[in-house]
Amino acid sequence: MTNLTDAPVLRIEQRSSQLEYLISDGTGAELGRAVQVAGPAPRKGLLGLAGSGLGDARVVLQVSGTDGAPLFYVDRKGGCPVAIVGSGGDVIGRFVGDVAGTSRAKVDSSRFGLPGAGLVHRLWDARDRPVGEVAWKVKTAQAATALEVLGGVCVDMDGTRTAEIEVQERKFKDRYTLRIPPGLPGPPEPLRTLVRAVPLALDLTRS
Amino acid sequence: MHLDDALAWTIDEPQLFRDFLVHADGRPLADVTRLPDPEADDGLMPYPDPHARYGTDRFRVSAATPDGRPRFIVDWTSDPMKPRPAFVTAPDGAPIGELAVSVGGFGGAFKFLTGRGGAGYVLRDARGEVLAGLHTPPMNDPDAEGGVEIAGENAGEEIGRFSVGLSPYGDRRRRYTMRLHRPVPEPLRTLLLASLIGMELMVPVIALPGER
Fold it and tell me: Which residue in A85, A99, A205 is closest to B205 by CB distance?
């Protein structure tokens, strides 16, 4: 039986305007859940249309398997990288905005002298060494200052593709599909866990 | 060779983000560690706040000699509205001086924007008197060296040069190397030691717009 830590496909669906997610494999079988365990709750209903209201507050998601035992935490605070923390309390790594990589992606995607759009994150291990990179496919949303994320590709520092992420951003119920390429043993730890936390980390930076 | 008399030193960021090592000839002169954010709290979670030393609003780093004796603190607060100086204080908080971005007038701004000039900084003592100016290499020639010119008496005399290169510890990290042509008196010496650390703290690396 596959579980959350070795399934080749993870579907992560936000259940409501709140930070609660159902995690399943490609066939719809439940693998686990992610629920908010710290921080203020996002606004509900019509108020939520104006934004979650979370601001820079610290928000923590607990990701657990079907038995309910915590596997890891995704811990976000405004102005800091998102920390991925193991169930024992040790930091596994961080999901970090990459200012230089994002600038390069914007330049690479610019056409006819018009400004391009880009978004790049890096994955650091517990000693702040880069172990992976996530290049997001984005398009400029209607409000020209905002970005809509369509998907992403995660590579390790040698450039080997370790995961592909499909993103369907909605007003409330965002959906993510993470695919680990077949035929590979999958990346070694800590990248193995970090890659699986990327959709939730992205969701928290955009909540 | 000691932190107080070395005429050349290199600054690296070998491990944790914003922890620096000042070294010369392969020997450590000072360990610079980031001080945790005083507002960090565990937020009822069963583990310590993982963000305690990862905020991008304010950076406070403390330099200590290898025997553990604290030497100075560099304190820089990020402000999107105006560039703020990096303050240098003694370990007990007594002000030593500051590193501030200098605005070079129309000509300087034109040179900077066209890539032919570098950024300019000034070092001021605790009373606000300018002791020296630093200019970084021009953007169109990043392998060139930056210079340090003294102010006041003998104004304009070059007292040192520095280079900014790629760090062997990662492609998003930098290595700074300073070479002084002659010994300089305090507090300029401490300010020069702190200057390149302050400059590095001002480089935005991990905070993307929209993530704060």
Answer: A99
Residue of B nearest to A207 (CA): B211
CB contact under 8 A, A75 and B50: yes
Separation CA B166–CA B177 (nearest Å): 11
Residues contacting B174, CB < 8 A, separation 6+: B13, B164, B165, B166, B167, B200, B203
Residues 6+ apart with CB under 8 A from B88: B72, B73, B74, B75, B95, B96, B97, B98, B99, B190, B191, B194, B198
pLDDT, tens digit, 9 for 90 and up, residues A58-92 = 899 999 999 989 999 999 998 899 999 999 999 99
Residue with tokens 């021009």: B138
Question: For residue A192, what is the DSSP state?
Answer: H
Q: Which residue of B has its CA nearest to A70?
A: B46
Q: Which stretch of A131-135, A153-157, B81-85 has the lowest confidence by average pLDDT?
A: B81-85
DSSP classification of residue A180 = P
Find chain A residues with C-beta within 8 A of B14's C-beta. none
Largest CA distance in chain B: 59
Show the tokens assigned to A33. 């859940």
**Looking at the partner chain, which of A58, A91, A146 has a beta carbon nearest the beta carbon of B43?**
A58
| Average predicted confidence (pLDDT) for chain B | 88
> 57-76 in B: which are within 8 Å (CB) of A?
57
Best of A64, A75, A80, A136 to disrupt the B interface (most B CBs within 10 Å) is A80
pTM to 2 decimal places: 0.89
Q: Position of tokens 């994955």?
A: A123
Q: Which residue do the tokens 């030593």 mark?
A: B96
Sorted by sequence, the CB contacts under 8 Å of residue A184 that are 6+ apart come out as: A162
Q: Is A25 helix (H, G, I), strand (E, B) or coil?
A: coil
Question: With the C-alpha atoms ordered B15, B18, B19, B24, is the resulting torsion angle positive or negative?
Answer: positive
| pLDDT value at B55 more than 70 | yes
A9-205 folds as Porin (2.40.160)
Judge: B56–A79 Cβ closer than 8 Å, yes or no: yes
Look at chain B and count its residues: 212
Distance separating alpha carbons of residues A38 and A21, to the nearest angstrom:
15
Asked if B168 has any chain A CB less than 8 Å from its own CB, the reply is no
